[in-house]
Amino acid sequence: LPAADAVSVGTEDSMPHAAPRPYRPAGLLAASAAAVLACTAESQSQRSLGAPPNAAWTNATGISADGSVVVGYMNAASGPARAFRWTAAGGMQVLPVLAGTFGGQARAVSGDGSLVVGDHLATAPPSIFNRKAAGWNQQGVLDLGAMIVGTGSSSVYDASHDGSVLVGTLGPQGSTRAFRWSQATGVLQLPPLQGSTFGLAAAVSADGEVVVGWSSGGTQPQARPFRWDAESGTQPLALPSGTQRAYASGISADGQFIVGNVVTAAGGRPVRWNAAGQLEDLGLLAGWTLPDAR
Hints:
- The protein has 294 residues and is mainly beta.
- The protein has one helix and 23 strands.
- It has one helix spanning 144-148; strands spanning 6-7, 35-39, 44-48, 55-63, 70-76, 81-87, 91-94, 104-109, 116-121, 131-137, 140-142, 154-159, 165-170, 177-182, 186-190, 198-204, 211-216, 224-229, 233-236, 245-251, 258-264, 267-273, 279-281.
- The radius of gyration is 18 Å and the shape is globular.
- The two termini are 26 Å apart.
- The relative contact order is 0.11.
């Protein structure tokens, strides 16, 4: 992303309103106090990321490929939600905000850790349908919304390994569309699945070539997961009989495996679609009810 897109910002405590959380299936990284699991072949351990003194709760939403950068957002006891970036050396750093916006969220980080992506609330009163895509790099906060869609609502949900490809959702309430952006192609709106009118691109492969997410609305009001690439376009993912709704929310670096959740009358289940497109139920840990995989 061009350094010229960086803009000056106000103080870190300049936003007066907390942002409501948009609906996304509960992920395994979500927690009342953000933590990261450091895993090796021999052992795993949990490490608290800490939190600013005024944080009521924190939520880790993304991690770089080597695990050195973790991002997410925090809510204060009073005041706005704020995006954060964590490293072992620097600890938890609250990220700056775009001028004229309210509470923000960091939704993901590029695989190399160089670009954090997410959004801010664009105007008051806070609304999940009036967002401005944002990014953060070494130059500061980036107005990705202006670059992607101009003045309309937009959110970035994921970035490729080097941050050169962004995916997410854009458009006003009632006509939101999934998108893929790159410097070379600009914004490409991804067609929703047949019968649907809305779309959200939730994740992208490391090389930026495969996008996954979900469509809804129209004659198919419940969410249905999709996979997109330039050759095949938007394709539905396999679902079991009796599916009420389903989401594709994550993808492996090589684009071969997709994860998400499927909801039936029996409840939600975390699932994986393998390289052959077959659906695999991942099951649930004893005593747990988290129905999503990312």
